[in-house]
Amino acid sequence: MLTIGQLAGYVGVTTKTIRFYHAKGLLPEPDRDSSGYRRYRASDAVELIKIRTLAEAGVPLARIRELRSGDGLASALRQIDDDLTARIAGLRATRSRLRRLASGRLSPLPDEVVASLARLPDLGFSERWVTLQNDLWTLVFATHPETARTNFRDQAAMLGTPALLAVVLEYDRIHDLDPHDPRVDALASKLVSATRARYGAELPSYERGSAIPALVQGAVNASSPAWRRLDALLRERLAKASPVRSPQAVVDRSQIDSHGVRQ
Question: pLDDT for 146-163, tens place per residue?
Fold first, then answer.
């Protein structure tokens, strides 16, 4: 027969924890002896070890109570084991990312994206543009990983077309212009023509309900008054060019061709 203190010491919990388990109906409270002390048996220690093991595995206390009082314990334990296996895999992946971060080698982007972005300077893009593209694609891959790779490949294919590459390079280069410079207006016309030629009259839009387009365009516009005015011109001209679509849907497509970011 064990006192509550002895039981707590053997099992590796506190007496407060044992009393809490009593209050929650997880561990039956034993009878008291003539002195008024609870006395525990070996079977109580076994039950407490089971409860502690489940709790340490992250099983909610309400679920533990169900398992202790119902059938299907073996099946439930297998499911818990599967969940733990998945959690362990996730923790290992997190540890790997932390180690890469510590060594300065962390990148949340797939290798093919990293390699493609590394080639942008050779195509004539500025370091500022490369950094922007890295940040924007990091956002897209983090929020929409199921579609990001396909969209990135579409953008990479676009840069393989000389005429489209020239337009995007020009977008990069107007960054420091006065927003009312005629070259901003001229580029807006080129982008409208390129968008219409690439997608026709029925311009696809982003997935409904996605906040990413506005977030992406906001990040772009914040870095350059010229880019901000170019975005306003695109909104106006593409909306007029495609009256059957909402202005925002048309603008979403212009953002794709301007920055290569699509959901």
Answer: 788 888 888 888 888 888
